[in-house]
Write a structure and sequence with these properties.
The complex is a heterodimer of chains A (about 450) and B (about 250).
Chain A: H1 3-13, H2 15-37, H3 42-58, H4 60-74, E1 77-81, H5 84-97, E2 102-105, H6 109-114, H7 116-121, E3 126-129, H8 132-140, H9 156-167, H10 176-193, E4 196-199, E5 203-205, E6 210-215, H11 219-226, E7 229-235, E8 239-240, H12 245-258, E9 265-269, E10 277-283, H13 287-291, H14 307-311, H15 313-316, H16 329-339, H17 356-360, H18 367-380, H19 386-400, H20 402-418, H21 421-424, H22 445-452
Parallel strand pairs in A: 1-10, 2-3, 2-4, 4-7, 5-8, 7-10
Antiparallel strand pairs in A: 5-6, 6-9
Helix pairs in contact in A: 2-12, 3-12, 9-10, 16-18, 19-20
Chain B: H1 3-6, E1 9-12, H2 16-21, H3 23-35, E2 39-41, H4 51-55, H5 63-73, E3 78-81, H6 84-93, H7 101-108, E4 110-112, H8 113-120, E5 128-129, E6 133-136, H9 140-145, H10 161-166, E7 169-170, E8 173-174, H11 190-193, H12 195-211, E9 216-219, H13 222-234, E10 240-243, H14 244-248
Parallel strand pairs in B: 1-2, 1-3, 3-4, 5-7, 6-8, 6-9, 9-10
Helix pairs in contact in B: 12-13
Classes of the chains: A alpha/beta (about 450), B alpha/beta (about 250).
């Protein structure tokens, strides 16, 4: 059994939790449906967003330079990081130059990708995630299970227990309002102490040098406004050309992510506050190579809304942690193999290829087609186990030759009729774990046709 | 139906798992097309569309299977199959073959049974009586690949070619599901490589139909139904599965 299937089995062993997880995520998908059905031009918006992103990917070098020039003239300092190590070092250097030790961070998948928290902690820096969900999983010492709802795998009782232990809340009080206000109080202290505020970036506008951060908790603003030094971290693909393009994406992002018309806060950061510093770190970390891959470059359009996770029937029933990658779900299954094809070869197979992900995607990433392509690429790189290859070779021979095909079918039906149930439903028959095999008919359609129909 | 179509030669493709395990679905398809006055041929050297290999990542190994399909069906005016998934595979994934006139022709003229009935011959009366409560399982490749209906993710006018056909059946009541088009979890070899999730998804699909009072689950793909039937029989449930061709071919008035 492959790693994803194994972890999914563990996840499903707790039926009650698994069903609850499926329902919770499906509710988000339903909220999304209600929100997008109200926008008549939804499909045109998706098409427009997709084309804007295609344009960006085709002219990325120019847009990045245009963005840098505008940002510098606004008074920001722009840094370029080739990979995760360089990125982490740049952040550390900014912190050290400012002789800081306390850092607050609002949600950024990029810093997860680069392992920034662990890196800074190893240098004695205190880094606090200020998004509520992120803070919960940070206190638990585990990775996010969803890119928008990082703690969706936890029930409030578990959060209550965690807060009791870490934030000294009342034992057994799992009232959401009580827990949220306790977290808020705790985070306010962190904001007030912070010397540096780090944020992710949802969009970076090339013509104005502005970075845009969308949050529901206002935590990016709290950090940026209270700390003297602000650092914004962005992947090179976050660029959009013009300010007016932003309207297309803000309309798509929140509706797709949570079913809100817009996030509570859409913060546009353009220049440092008086006496402050504004740093923007532009990170490649494999994206240029990804851009050069004609089959998969399309996935760089992703705006990280998480809609493909909420809709995916496999994700909803295996949980985010079963994917073993920073970005789980359908989009994670096509992003992860770009860097680690061998290690993540199970992910493109963790899909029934239902195609719901591609239809729900606000920027039209053809996710299910790319999953299919990854399967071919993984097979051609000869990464399959030997037995799987033997079976596939055999199947190729059987299915392409009428004679062997008929004979094999006949044999299969004979086995199902005559071999003992114990043998047919042995451990290696994974179909039989929860299902009966079809009842074998006396004859195949072909045999029936030969006897009964003279047309041919 | 115009006389052009009446005189056309129809090639019937019966997918491998229907041929081997569900011959009655093949028979229902054949009888239905013949009742409509069509000339149906069944080339005996046909095997499979190649999808089981390709979805497992071995599309190169499926090329001889693709060639066998094209060779068997290139001579017909229309190629019809009671499977949205296989038809989608021929149209979408035979792009790796050299695009000869024959290959292009076959890809263009291969139709899933329901879309052939609604879009090509425009059936207006099927003279069927089927007094049962039926739930439609929207097989994904038919729904999202062949666009046999509007997927719930998409913002557009609602339509369903399956419903359009089932409305011809007297006494048939289409029941509403909580999740109108969620995947059943079959997914080809996904069903054996990820058996736990696959069965979990199948169970959810069956429960949705049971909860809303369906006596029968129908679909355009017997593969989804083979998976659901396997779960139903294991759990000794009362609900039944029937391919849509069986319903459309039942009890003529």
């Amino acid at each position: 059994m492959n790693p994803h299937a194994k972890k999914a089995r563990q996840f499903l062993a707790d039926t009650e939790r698994a069903d609850w997880q499926d329902k919770a995520l499906w509710a988000v998908r339903q909220k999304r449906d209600l929100a997008v059905y109200a926008v008549k031009e939804w499909e045109e918006l998706r098409e427009q967003a997709s084309r804007i992103k295609e344009n960006v990917l085709s002219n990325l070098d120019n847009y990045l330079l245009q963005f840098e020039e505008a940002a510098i003239s606004n008074g920001a300092q722009v840094h370029w990081a080739f990979d995760a190590d360089r990125f982490n070092e740049i952040v550390l250097k900014i912190i050290n130059v400012n002789t800081a030790v306390k850092v607050v961070k609002s949600k950024s998948m990029l810093t997860e990708e680069c392992g920034l928290n662990h890196f800074l902690e190893s240098y004695g820096i205190e880094i606090t995630d200020t998004d509520l969900g992120e803070r919960i999983i940070q206190l638990r010492g585990e990775p996010p299970s969803h890119i928008v709802l990082p703690a969706i795998h936890l029930k409030r009782e578990e959060v209550s227990e965690l807060f009791h232990e870490k934030l000294q809340t009342e034992k057994g009080n799992s009232d959401p309002t009580y827990l949220t206000s306790a977290a808020r109080k705790h985070l306010r202290e962190k904001f007030l102490e912070a010397e540096i505020a780090i944020t992710g970036v949802n969009f970076a506008v090339a013509e104005t040098g502005t970075v845009v951060v969308c949050t529901n908790e206002g935590n990016a603003d709290m950090g940026v406004h209270s700390a003297p030094v602000q650092i914004h971290c962005m992947g090179i693909e976050k660029i959009i050309p013009r300010n007016i393009d932003l309207g297309v994406f803000t309309r798509l992002l929140a509706r797709s992510a949570t079913g809100q018309p817009i996030t509570t806060y859409t913060s546009l950061y353009r220049k440092p506050k008086p006496g402050g510093q504004m740093h923007i770190i532009i990170v490649d970390n494999g994206r240029s190579e990804h851009l050069g891959n004609p089959v998969h470059r399309n996935s760089l359009k992703c705006i990280r809304c998480g809609a493909c996770m909420n809709t995916c029937p496999v994700y909803r029933r295996s949980g985010g942690h079963s994917y073993g990658s920073i970005i789980p779900g359908p989009i994670g299954s096509i992003l992860s193999p770009i860097k680690e094809m061998k290690e993540k070869q199970d992910l493109p197979f963790a899909s029934s290829l239902c195609g719901s992900c591609s239809d729900v995607c606000p920027v039209k990433v053809d996710i299910h087609r790319q999953i299919y392509s990854w399967r071919q690429e993984i097979s051609e790189k000869k990464l399959f186990p030997v037995t799987k290859n033997i079976i596939l070779n055999l199947a190729g021979k059987v299915l392409s030759r009428n004679g062997i095909y008929n004979f094999t079918g006949k044999t299969a039906r004979w086995i199902l009729r005559n071999v003992s149930r114990k043998l047919v439903y042995s451990k290696i028959n994974t179909w039989g774990l929860g299902r009966e095999l079809p009842e074998p008919p006396r004859e195949s359609f072909k045999e029936w046709f030969k006897k009964n129909n003279k047309i041919n | 139906m115009n006389t052009g179509i009446k005189n056309s030669r129809i090639g019937l493709f019966i997918p491998c798992y229907i041929d081997l395990f569900y011959p009655h679905v093949g028979i229902a398809t054949l009888e239905l097309l013949q009742k409509l006055g069509l000339h149906v041929f069944y080339p005996l050297k046909q095997t499979c569309c190649g999808q089981p290999l390709a979805n497992s990542g071995a599309e190169k190994k499926a090329i001889p299977v693709y060639h066998n399909f094209v060779k068997n069906f290139a001579e017909f005016d229309y190629i019809i199959s009671p499977s949205g998934s296989c038809v989608y595979h021929v149209r979408e994934h035979y792009d790796i073959l050299e695009q000869t006139d024959e290959v292009i022709y076959v890809r263009k003229n291969t139709f899933e049974l329901c879309e052939f009935l609604t879009d090509v011959i425009h059936v207006t009366d099927l003279k069927v009586r089927f007094p049962h409560k039926v739930g439609i399982h929207q097989s994904c490749h038919g729904l999202r690949g062949l666009k046999l209906g509007k997927a719930s993710e998409i913002v557009a006018e609602k339509y369903s070619k399956l419903e359009q056909l089932l409305r011809h059946a007297e006494g048939l009541e289409i029941i509403k599901l909580d999740r109108e088009d969620e995947c059943c979890g079959f997914g080809g070899t996904f069903s054996v490589f990820e058996p736990d999730i696959s069965v979990k998804m199948g169970n959810a699909r069956i429960c949705d139909h049971e909860k809303n009072g369906a006596e029968i689950i129908t679909a355009t793909d017997m593969s989804c139904l083979m998976h659901l039937e396997g779960i139903i029989r294991r759990q000794k449930k009362a609900i039944k599965v029937m391919h849509i061709a069986e319903i459309l071919n039942s009890n003529s008035l």
